[in-house]
Design goal:
Layout: H1 13-20, H2 29-42, H3 55-62, H4 66-79, E1 82-85, E2 89-92, H5 95-98, H6 104-107, E3 112-114, H7 125-139, H8 151-163, E4 173-176, H9 179-190, E5 196-201, H10 205-213, E6 217-224, E7 227-228, H11 230-240, E8 244-247, H12 261-274, E9 278-281, E10 304-309, E11 321-324, H13 327-337, H14 346-356, H15 359-383, E12 397-401, H16 407-415, E13 419-421, E14 436-440, H17 445-463, E15 466-467, E16 470-471
Parallel strand pairs: 3-13, 5-6, 5-8, 8-9, 9-10
Antiparallel strand pairs: 1-2, 4-11, 6-7, 10-11, 12-14, 15-16
Helix pairs in contact: 1-3, 2-4, 3-4, 7-14, 8-14, 9-10, 9-13, 11-12, 15-17, 16-17
Length: about 475
């Protein structure tokens, strides 16, 4: 991994020198060095809390004078990116904290959030912002509105689908404010109060909330450890007559399962035969961690609405997603959209277009997430040996089977140990799933290990078990 591996860890002079690369850009050495270190902080390579090498060590590694190193650190301290204390050295801090703000990302060390399954920004984000800033000049002469999105971004997303085996033109792409926004658009257009919406059981909790908010009725079909119940889906399509289906066939949330080509073909044929539009959520499709042969994108003619997002592969802060659908369906979605919003932010679209043109950020993201997955899996096996799970080949979470129905009680107990958990019932259309818990691996390794340590204490409290020689009382 390119970043300092743990929050609060130390980086050596040689490692920092390698990260900085050719940092000299002018004769203003201290300014250049400070700017180079700042870029590594903003790009996520030097997380908040990283201990910097001593001035002498860094000077030797960079082949620079200690005076230059000291001047660069002075500039970083003035900007709030570095703090120093006599006898303790210097470390990376938050510029917000320097201004008297306590950002949750760097100061909430006592609480670990295992509800949110989104990572920090991917490597290369700052470079993409810098490149987008140059391109923005051409967009400033336009009104800035656009219900379909910028042509350059639509072209690059369409090219991604074509590369994956589903020929797509830019006219089949609409840019949205995230995948969830895309789903809500489709839901608003295709289903109304009292209409049935077919979903998997379990499924993405926020999709269930959106269905209920539209006063529609989620109709669940069970998804077990072995995958999709295609016979059950076929029977539900025939008997319930849903107006819409919402499905996650790539690294399913929360099970992590992936539907194979044969299953996709059969499912597509069912939806086409029943004339049921389906929103296929591809939020996690880019996070293929093991690099095996990937199934083709789901295709069911005019009945498939594929939605994607930048949030997991790059950063949730971009709030840019998209829809891939037939041109006729996109025309209808455009009309429905005006009741919700007037388009997506131009600058963020330019940033995502730059990210899509560079394969390196996504490669580094996959490498990072693969490592975090393996750390979390090892920690669960060590601290919660009675729990079972299938190691997912992609996505951001383990779906763990518990030794007894205790998911809600476990979430309540975990809160007392500074750990926020989403009980299994959140992922069910009508609750239940008390034998299951979702554990995301979207945080640094040390946070993951600490989270599982707390989780084991919470389990012991719920089950009255002994931990470290002490009996935990129910």
């Amino acid at each position: 991994m390119n970043s300092a591996s743990v929050l609060g860890g130390r980086i050596s002079g040689h490692r920092l020198a390698a990260l900085l690369g050719d940092w000299r850009r002018s004769r203003r050495g201290a300014t250049d060095l400070a700017s180079a270190i700042e870029l590594q902080v903003l790009d996520g390579h030097l997380p908040v809390g990283t201990q910097l090498p001593a001035e002498r060590e860094l000077a030797d590694a960079l082949g620079a004078s200690r005076t230059l190193i000291g001047s660069a650190l002075d500039r970083l301290r003035e900007g709030g990116l570095v703090e120093s204390r006599r006898g303790s050295g210097s470390w990376i801090t938050s510029p917000q904290r320097h201004r008297g703000i306590n950002p949750a990302s760097s100061d909430s060390t006592d609480l670990i959030d295992f509800v949110c399954a989104s990572p920090s920004a991917a490597s290369g984000m700052t470079r993409a912002f810098d490149a987008a800033r140059v391109l923005l000049a051409d967009e400033l002469v336009s009104p800035g509105y656009g219900d379909r999105g910028l042509p350059i971004l639509r072209e690059r997303i369409a090219a991604r689908y074509t590369e994956r085996g589903l020929p797509t033109s830019p006219s089949q792409i609409m840019i949205t404010n995230g995948a969830h926004h895309a789903f809500v658009l489709a839901l608003r257009m295709l289903a109304g109060p009292g209409d049935r919406v077919l979903v998997e059981q379990p499924t993405y909790a926020n999709a269930l909330e959106a269905i209920r908010a539209a006063h529609a009725i989620p109709v669940p079909v069970a998804l077990d450890r072995d995958g999709w119940d295609l016979d059950g889906i076929e029977a539900t399509l025939r008997q319930a007559g849903p107006r819409l289906a919402y499905l996650i066939v790539d690294f399913h949330n929360p099970t992590g399962l992936r539907l194979d080509d044969e299953g996709r073909e059969r499912l597509a044929a069912m939806l086409t035969a029943s004339r049921t539009p389906a929103v296929i959520d591809e939020t996690l499709v880019e996070l293929d961690l093991d690099g095996g042969p990937a199934p083709r994108p789901f295709a069911a003619g005019d009945w498939a609405i594929l939605v994607g997002t930048s949030s997991k592969a790059y950063w949730g802060g971009l709030r840019i997603g998209w829809i891939r659908a037939s041109e006729d369906l996109l025309a209808r979605l455009s009309s429905a959209r005006f009741g919700l919003d007037l388009g997506s932010p131009v600058f963020e679209q330019l940033v995502l277009a730059e990210l899509l043109a560079d394969p390196e950020p996504l490669r580094l993201r996959r490498e990072e997430v693969r490592s975090q997955r393996d750390v979390l899996a090892a920690a669960v096996r060590e601290h919660c040996p009675e729990w079972t799970f299938r190691l997912p080949s992609g996505g951001f979470w383990l779906w763990c089977a518990l030794p007894e129905p205790m998911s809600t009680r476990l979430a309540v107990a975990a809160a007392g140990h500074g750990l926020q958990l989403a009980p299994g019932s959140r992922f069910g259309a009508h609750g239940g799933l008390e034998r299951w818990i979702r554990l995301p691996f979207s945080q640094p390794p040390e946070r993951l290990r600490e989270a599982v340590r707390r989780l084991a204490l919470a389990e012991a409290a719920v089950r009255g078990k002994s931990v470290g020689g002490e009996i935990q009382v129910r």
